[in-house]
């Protein structure tokens, strides 16, 4: 009988407040997905490539999970308190029938355990399938091929999820016991008769609060845009305090003059059920302005973290495509080796990697570092350009042809420019001089910039930043004196042939370079000082991709993890509060029905209230996030070009799906609650 009563109570609670159970289920699901990463097959594959990044992802996930558990605990405790408040009359009836407080506490304990077990079972089941999707998604980010896909159930992830949520539900049980012990029978039985005491404020006072809130927000925005996100000091915390206070005053002021403003427009106020809707919404803001402030700040965190993580993701991926245009590049410095560039393919073949078989197209080119005949002044501060990297036009065209680009032609006595990948902080003196129209005196000849020959992006794959290169006509290379050249570098660059096993080719190339190629090159001769190890390097697109994608996946995972939790938390709080209002308004809607108000009009009034309550915090959070993301983008842009459109689009889609789903579920739940009662 006791278990039957608990089960009926849980069933009724889930029917009336399904959002509470869905939120529990989703929390368990997300928690398991990110805490099962360690045992997923994709992480095992990544660990073989770069174990450091995998270890960093897992360690940071553990740290973030503690924070997420605190957020979820707060949400669950809030929802549980909300449910108990709605059941005060029921609990009072139990006491009136002779059930003791200890027995009621045991009943609530059984209900909590029942709900917790259901949420754990269904949440872990859903999380199991989503974890497989996350593994496949991660593999696609790293362009990995999987020979055989298999499902992985992480017992470690299950253990963490059960442990954290057991602690959370234990806190819920303790909270229930305390709340039941503090309640008196008369207060429980008269819970639905207790009216809220609303203090109306004058329009003038509300207007002052509104203006003050806007001023505080404007000051906080100005400090953020001027100082940026990376300066953490007292002013930074003051800026956060001003933003929070401004948000609080904004919502607090709405309860005072929003209704009065609408009342001044008689046609709008008395149209349909607008008078009823506005009064209900005004009372809701007056009661919950503090929670709306918290929800707005949570939405700000959700939007900002998600957008920035996606922005970093697209920026890092764009950097890989920009800095690694070819599958592989082998570099040999002639200063360290007595070597001819024509022998580079033969040396690679003797080492065990035949370029003719493994590479579809490749080119062997040379880049020179030369001393200019005459320094080029760069600015009024006295800086000069004394050296520059140069390359022949034919070598330049050979590299661009690997990517299907058409060959370029230089006019007589002119030079072109190939941009490097060095950040702006390096100064880029060659590009500055070239764009200013300076004349380059090299090898006794003077060359003017040719604007038609200008190349952006890396010419070949390199792990280090590349400097700008001056492109000279082929005949000009013959005039460059030997003593002018202080560094000569040979490059063998190309793409893997179609049809070959690229992973096997990649592994073979690295083994050859690490174990054999050094010996082959040293047999041909090296400088006496024994520094040959510094004159030979290998860069591959896959290695750079894996190295940079570690940062990408770390930021993306943690950003989506936190962003989703914050979004779910804020939407669930709003949904629970609106369902509470729907339950309070049952009597009022019953009167409207008796007065002849059509069901369609009643449903529309509910939808309008839910819409206003959901999208006012979202609107202010979007304004906050625009300023915050602008400051964050200034930091992200330092590592590469930021794709603001992509980050905004992905964030908007996530908000549309998650927040929109809660909005629709709240509308449906509120309508059903009013109709059934």
Automatic annotation (TrEMBL):
The residues that cross the membrane are 17-37, 57-83, 104-134, 162-181, 202-223, 235-259, 289-312, 553-576, 610-632, 644-665
Could you say which protein family the record assigns here?
Answer: Belongs to the ABC-4 integral membrane protein family.
Q: Does the keyword Cell cycle apply?
A: no
Q: Which UniProt keywords apply?
A: Cell membrane, Membrane, Transmembrane, Transmembrane helix, Transport
**The ABC3 transporter permease C-terminal domain, residue ranges:** 63-175
This chain belongs to the protein called ABC transporter permease
Compartment(s) = Cell membrane
Record's bilayer topology term: Multi-pass membrane protein
């Amino acid at each position: 009988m006791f278990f039957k009563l608990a089960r009926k109570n849980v069933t009724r609670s889930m029917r009336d407040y399904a959002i509470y159970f869905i939120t529990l289920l989703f929390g368990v699901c997300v928690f398991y997905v990110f805490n099962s990463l360690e045992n997923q097959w994709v992480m095992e594959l990544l660990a073989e490539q770069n174990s450091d990044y995998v270890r960093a992802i897992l360690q940071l996930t553990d740290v973030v999970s503690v924070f997420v558990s605190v957020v979820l605990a707060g949400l669950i405790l809030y929802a549980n308190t909300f449910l108990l408040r709605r059941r005060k009359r029921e609990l009072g009836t139990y006491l009136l029938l002779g059930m003791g407080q200890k027995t009621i506490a045991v009943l609530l304990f059984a209900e909590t355990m029942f709900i917790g077990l259901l949420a754990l079972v269904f949440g872990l089941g859903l999380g199991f399938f989503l974890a497989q999707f996350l593994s496949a998604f991660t593999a696609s980010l790293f362009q990995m091929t999987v020979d055989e896909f298999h499902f992985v159930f992480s017992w470690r992830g299950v253990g963490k999820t059960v442990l954290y949520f057991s602690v959370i539900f234990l806190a819920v049980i303790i909270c229930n016991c305390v709340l039941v012990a503090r309640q008196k029978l008369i207060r429980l039985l008269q819970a639905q008769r207790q009216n809220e005491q609303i203090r109306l404020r004058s329009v003038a006072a509300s207007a002052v609060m509104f203006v003050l809130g806007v001023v505080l927000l404007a000051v906080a925005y100005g400090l953020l845009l001027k100082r940026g996100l990376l300066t953490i000091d007292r002013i930074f915390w003051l800026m956060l305090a001003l933003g929070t206070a401004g948000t609080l005053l904004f919502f607090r002021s709405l309860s005072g003059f929003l209704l009065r403003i609408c009342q001044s427009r008689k046609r709008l106020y008395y149209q349909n059920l607008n008078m009823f809707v506005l009064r209900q919404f005004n009372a809701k803001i007056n009661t919950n302005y503090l929670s709306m402030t918290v929800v707005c700040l949570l939405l700000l965190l959700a939007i900002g973290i998600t957008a920035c993580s996606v922005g970093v993701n697209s920026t890092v991926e764009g950097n890989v495509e920009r800095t690694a245009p070819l599958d592989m590049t082998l570099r040999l410095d002639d200063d360290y080796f007595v070597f001819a560039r024509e022998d580079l393919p033969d040396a690679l073949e003797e080492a065990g990697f035949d370029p003719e078989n493994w590479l579809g197209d490749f080119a062997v080119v040379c880049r020179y570092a030369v001393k200019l005949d005459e320094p080029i002044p760069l600015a009024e501060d006295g800086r000069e350009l004394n050296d520059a990297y140069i390359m022949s036009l034919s070598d330049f065209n050979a590299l661009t042809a690997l990517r299907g680009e058409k060959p370029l032609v230089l006019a007589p006595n002119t030079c072109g420019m190939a941009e490097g990948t060095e950040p702006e902080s390096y100064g880029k003196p060659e590009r500055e001089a070239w764009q200013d129209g300076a004349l380059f005196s090299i090898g006794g000849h003077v060359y003017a910039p040719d604007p038609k020959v200008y190349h952006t992006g890396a010419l070949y794959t390199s792990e280090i930043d590349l400097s700008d290169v001056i492109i000279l006509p082929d005949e000009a290379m013959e005039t460059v004196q030997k003593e002018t050249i202080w560094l000569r570098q040979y490059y063998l660059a190309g793409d893997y042939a179609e049809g070959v096993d690229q992973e096997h080719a990649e592994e073979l190339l690295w083994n050859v370079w690490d174990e054999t190629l050094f010996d082959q090159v040293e047999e041909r001769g090296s400088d006496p000082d024994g520094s040959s190890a510094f004159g030979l390097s290998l860069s591959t697109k896959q290695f750079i991709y894996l190295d940079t994608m570690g940062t990408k996946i770390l930021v993306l995972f943690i950003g989506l993890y936190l962003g989703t939790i914050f979004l779910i938390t804020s939407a669930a709080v709003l949904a629970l509060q609106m369902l509470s209002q729907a339950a309070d308004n049952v009597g009022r809607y019953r009167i409207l029905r008796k007065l002849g108000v059509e069901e369609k009009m009643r449903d529309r009034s509910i939808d309008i209230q839910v819409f206003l309550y959901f999208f006012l915090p979202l609107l202010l959070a979007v304004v906050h996030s625009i300023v915050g993301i602008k400051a964050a983008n200034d930091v992200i842009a330092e590592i590469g070009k930021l794709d603001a459109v992509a980050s905004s689009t992905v964030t908007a889609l996530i908000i549309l799906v998650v927040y929109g789903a809660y909005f629709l579920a709240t509308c449906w739940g509120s309508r059903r609650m009013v109709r059934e009662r």
